[in-house]
Amino acid sequence: MLMLVLTVYSSGSHAQNIKDAIQNEELLKYQAAKTIYNQILAKDPSNAEVYYHLGVIAYHNYQYDSANYYFGKGIQVNAGEPLNFVGTGLMKLHNKNFALAKQDFDKAIGMTSTGSKDKIAYVDQQIVNAIWMEQDAQDADYAFGLAQKAVSLDDKNLRIKISLGDAYIVKGDGGSGIRQYEGVEDMDSKYLLAQLKVGHCYASPSAKNYDAALEVFNKIVATDPNYPPVYPELGEAYYQKGNIDKAKECYQKFLSLVGSSPAERLRYAEFLYLIKDFRNALIQINMAYEGLPDNVALLRLKAYCETETGDNKSGLNTIQKMFQKAKTDELHGIDYEYFGRLLIKNNQDSAGIANLYKAYKDDSSKVYLLDSIAAGYAKVKKFNKAAQVMEQKLIRTKDNINAQDYYNLGRYYLVESNYIKADTSFSKVVLSYPTWPVGYYYRAVCNSNIDSTMKKGSAKPFYEKFLEVVGKDSMAFKPQVIEAYMYLESYYYNKNDYEKAKEYAKKVKVLDPANKQNNAILKYIEDINKKKK
After folding, report:
1. I need a labelling partner for 533 at 20 to 30 A (CA). Which of 139, 203, 266, 491 fits?
2. What is the 3-state secondary structure (H, E, C) of 109-133?
């Protein structure tokens, strides 16, 4: 999310200080801004406007409890300052309490009815900004009306004009939003927020015009290479275009400009997770953890990265804490997926399977989850259940079946001694992989069990085909090759074809000289041949 940027509204003797602090907020330099705000409070503890700004900073740092505290404190020290009711409305929007949020916004508006035009416009703009940040589409018309009113009251204020563009965006009218932002840029080409908003629109999930976004963002960098807000947006656009190295440079540049607060580290960690640099992502997360120990987004990402780096014990502890802290509507299917994987890796298989099913229910297009569910059942030796899950997957993927699924199904049926169904599955494996010896081997195993007395010799053609296909790679399949030779030796021995049996017995002798069964058969054949002489 493009970060909150504030216009300058201040009153009283600390105008310059507040102006400096807000400028740092605009540049996303939150630590510097907080330092100034705290200095102001040390001199004037009743400054409710400062509490509002501290609450907004806490919001952007995912410190929602702190944000609520600051807004509440601002109301406590001066219930006549409307901004903190904008803040409480923002937090209610964040918690999806739309009706209650609007009540707070209306209260803030009512409190400015007798104030200056600047104050009225500023409060209206802050409400629009809150609605834009939370993408509250149901209050889009409400925001649009406030933005129009604010512009009419202060039509020279560029930040307020940008809020009208934000209102268009919330209404779903991206074209009008961009035109509004470009109009602001025409008024002042050095006001980079307007350009940033245009680039953000191009890079949005609905537009995905990353080339246009890159052009806009790089224009901003050319104008001011030390303008921090552009770098996360530029990094994201580079990432979407597949330029990972440039994306990394942008995030590192951003941190060098704004410092390394928990929120900035978390955002960088999210990027590192996306490019599968899990170890470095975890380094950033662990450094951010002290400042955000109960943050759901951080705990989620920490658990994911611990899973991907093989730290399954810590991963399970982290994701359990995340589930405790998260509200139901904050949980996603992928959370259940990771939770299920971690539970299984920590030998809590039944609970793991249950969570994988929840993930699959959330998004049934993720058919790969059925593989994990089947493997979970197999791990606890419920092979019949595993086979049922694989049958389900084959139905789901009937138009684009992966032969590996037939292989897995065959293995599950084989362990269950369901040799006929297993053989049917492996027959489809050899059709897809005719040069892979394993399929023929398992067909031979199935048929040797179906025809256990060798009356029909059902396994013979499959062992022979296995030996033919394995060729020069026979040592990679040495136990299976010996098994094939032994079967053919026994087959010919039972047919009284001792010469052929002896041929295979000698092959076994080379590979397994100490094989007692083979040596006994070989001696018996030699004794028969001596008697014939």
Report:
1. 491
2. HHHCCCCCHHHHHHHHHHHHHHHHH
- How far is it, in rounded angstroms, from Cα 200 to Cα 234? 9
Does residue 173 register a pLDDT over 50? yes
Label residue 333 exposed, middle or buried (CB < 10 Å: 0-12, 13-18, 19+): middle
On whether the CB atoms of residues 89 and 75 are closer than 8 A, the answer is: no
**Which residues of 392-467 form beta strands (DSSP E)?**
none
Write the DSSP assignment of 55-69 as a string of letters: HHHHHHTT-HHHHHH
Tell me the pTM. 0.74
Distance, in Å, from the CA atom of 153 to the CA atom of 418, rounded to the nearest integer, reads 80
- Element holding 100 (H helix, E strand): helix 98-111
Residue the block writes with tokens 């074209």: 175
Residue 10 has pLDDT above 50, yes or no: no
Closest CA to 81 of 96, 93, 70: 70
d(CA 87, CA 70): 9
Closest of 436, 487, 439, 434 to residue 460, by C-alpha: 487
Contact 454, 490 (CB under 8 A): yes
In the block, which residue shows the tokens 């952007």? 60
pLDDT, tens only, 326-365: 988 889 999 999 999 999 999 999 999 999 999 999 999 9
In angstroms, rounded to a whole number, what is the distance separating the alpha carbons of residues 21 and 51?
Answer: 12
Q: Give pairs for 147-155: CB < 8 Å, separation 24+.
A: 149/120, 149/121, 149/124, 150/120, 150/121, 150/122, 150/124, 150/125, 151/121, 153/117, 153/118, 153/120, 153/121, 153/124, 154/117, 154/118, 154/121
- Among 201, 23, 522, smallest CA distance to 37 is for 23
- What is the pLDDT, as a whole number, of residue 262? 84
| Whole-angstrom Cα Rg for the chain | 34
> Do 146 and 112 form a contact (C-beta atoms < 8 A)?
no
CA dihedral 134, 138, 139, 144 (to 10 degrees): 100
